[in-house]
Write a structure and sequence with these properties.
Elements (H helix, E strand, L loop, with lengths): L21 H8 L2 H5 L2 H18 L3 H14 L4 H13 L3 H14 L4 H13 L3 H14 L4 H23 L8 H4 L24 H12 L6 H16 L4 E4 L6 E5 L6 H11 L8 E3 L10 H14 L4 E3 L7 H7 L1 H8 L2 H11 L5 E4 L3 E4 L11 H5 L12 H7 L1 E2 L5 E3 L6 E3 L1 H10 L4 E4 L8 E4 L4 E4 L13 E7 L2 E9 L15 H6 L1
Parallel strand pairs: 1-5, 2-3, 3-4, 6-10, 7-9, 10-12
Antiparallel strand pairs: 2-13, 5-6, 8-9, 11-12, 13-14
Helix pairs in contact: 3-4, 3-5, 4-5, 5-6, 5-7, 6-7, 7-8, 8-9, 11-14, 12-14, 12-17, 16-17
Length: about 525
């Protein structure tokens, strides 16, 4: 974390990504003399400086604590809110970041970085028009600031693109991918292609082994086979229910993994540690396969390939990142377009709409990406009846399955992300009792050890992307159970090296600034 991202009370030059103009610094300093005489302000500054140091070392939770103490002592500094907003953005707590951005602007309307923080939170939540108004305001205040103009231009481009997409959208019966691409057999395989090939149009174990080695060497699967896998997955997923029941017999092992986020080499490490998927070694991957990591294409075709090879022993749940808004912002759309075509990116959007929302193991463990609900009366049958063939809505059961998070305290609360809810141990206990479940497993959140046991053991978080985005320093984890012993066994693991392609390499340029 560059110190230039942290506003200080001393004159400085912010010459990196955000390029804060001197006017911002002067605005923050204009009453520095009387403030210096205030003992609360002096103590608050010490907390802020500690927070800045922690933010630089990526200790975001501790940084938030320091900024919160600064705000408690001296709530009149927009800088404290803005810096805490930045820490919340790094933790993907977009709802809390938005609150702090709003507070920064209210506290000091002349502090332009407050508008940037608010805009960043709105962008992260897909609220591009609201973000645009903040970027526009800063650009007008700083007409000669190239950085401000760039942010306004990029955000305006996204707003116009989405308006165009809505304008040309036509309601018509949806065709399967196989119907759309009847000429698939006519795609030519070039003579110089030496990569894996489907056998009679089917995925085999040898194909999967060859594909993974091919990907490790940073080579691409031929588009003909890529399209074929997508067509076959589309047909299969359309026939699946929104809640898939899984039966794990006897002493057989079953493995549950969390977010992968395009970290292909860490995915390969999971298979190295725990064994390749097979009928005797089944897996469930619990959403967020793509985005942020720059090997998302390799991850998703590997996962789809194993699903086709072992349809009854390899399972995939939808995460909040299997959606068009997230894919366009956080890199997957750009990566697919760069490695294949924009048409294939559109195909992924259609396929993701058909991914199941959750899985129930042996009628005792419910696995979903996000969490539980704003109502106590939700049953498994309610989940089964969800019409999932759509983009995730902003409220309701599907939204909460993909977005909600647990909290330590009782009851429910607003989401720190700005979407879904937060639910306490009493909510989890009530849900499990109503549906005769032992516990739930969810993902969706970075954890230091790759997992967290919460709510008296009834809510387990598993996250399988170690050193998330090459910055977080966390471990990854996966969970194993057996059919006759549903007590979870958890294995943590460290990140492995990967080729020098940075996370978010294919993301929208404005989102790269946010990241």
């Amino acid at each position: 974390m560059s110190s230039s991202e942290l506003e200080t009370q001393q004159k400085s030059t912010d010459n990196l990504q955000e390029q804060a103009p001197n006017a911002e610094i002067n605005a923050a300093e204009r009453d520095s003399a009387p403030e210096a005489e205030d003992p609360d302000f002096a103590a608050a500054e010490q907390y802020k400086n500690k927070g800045n140091d922690l933010l630089k070392t990526k200790e975001f939770s501790k940084a938030i604590d320091m900024y919160s103490k600064a705000i408690e002592l001296y709530p009149s500094s927009a800088i404290y809110y803005a810096n805490r907003a930045l820490a919340h953005l790094r933790q993907e707590n977009f709802g809390l970041a938005l609150q702090d951005g709003v507070s920064a602007v209210k506290t000091d309307p002349s502090y332009l970085k407050g508008y940037y923080r608010r805009a960043a939170a709105h962008m992260s939540l897909g609220k591009f028009k609201l973000a645009l108004s903040d970027f526009e305001y800063v650009a007008k205040c700083r007409p000669n600031d190239k950085d401000a103009k760039f942010k306004y231009y990029e955000c305006n481009k996204i707003v116009k693109m989405r308006a165009f997409e809505r304008a040309i959208a036509v309601d018509k019966p949806e065709k399967t991918l196989s119907e759309m691409y009847t000429d698939l057999e006519n795609i030519t395989i070039e003579d110089d292609y030496k990569g894996p090939q489907l056998e009679d149009g089917k995925v085999t174990l040898q194909f999967m082994k060859d594909l993974m080695e091919h990907y490790k060497a940073q080579k691409r699967l031929h588009r003909k086979f890529a399209y074929k896998i997508l067509c076959d997955i589309d047909v299969y997923m359309r026939a699946q229910p929104s809640l898939v029941d899984i039966k794990v017999p006897g002493e057989e092992k079953f493995t549950i993994c969390g977010d992968i986020h395009g970290q292909f080499y860490d995915l390969m490490n999971i298979f190295e540690i725990n064994g390749l998927p097979s009928e005797k070694n089944p897996y469930l991957f619990n959403g967020d396969f793509v985005d942020r990591g720059s090997f998302s294409v390799e991850c998703i075709f590997t996962l789809f390939g194993f699903k086709l090879l072992y349809p009854n022993h390899f399972f995939l749940s939808r995460g909040n990142h299997e959606s068009i808004n997230m894919n366009q912002m956080y890199g997957f759309t750009g990566e697919v377009t760069a490695k294949y075509t924009s048409t294939m990116a559109d195909i992924f959007t259609q396929v993701f709409n058909w991914l199941p929302l959750c899985h129930c193991i042996n009628q005792k463990i419910l696995v979903m990406h996000g969490g539980l609900f704003s109502s106590d009366d939700v049953t498994l049958d309610n989940i089964r009846r969800i019409d999932r063939n759509c983009q995730p809505p902003e409220e309701g059961l599907m939204c909460e399955l993909l977005w909600s998070d647990p909290q330590q305290w009782m009851g429910r609360g607003p989401s720190k992300r700005g979407v879904g809810i937060q639910f306490g141990p009493d909510v989890t206990e009530t849900f499990c009792k109503l549906n005769n479940l032992d516990y739930i497993i969810r993902s969706h959140e970075v954890k230091d050890m790759g997992y967290e046991m919460a709510h008296n053991g009834q809510c387990i978080t598993v996250f399988s992307a170690p050193n998330y985005c090459d910055t977080m320093g966390n471990m990854g984890a996966f969970i194993t159970i057996t059919g006759n012993n549903l007590t979870p066994k958890i294995r943590s693991f460290e990140a492995v090296p990967h080729p020098d392609v940075k996370p978010m390499a294919y993301a929208n340029s404005l989102m790269n600034w946010l990241a």
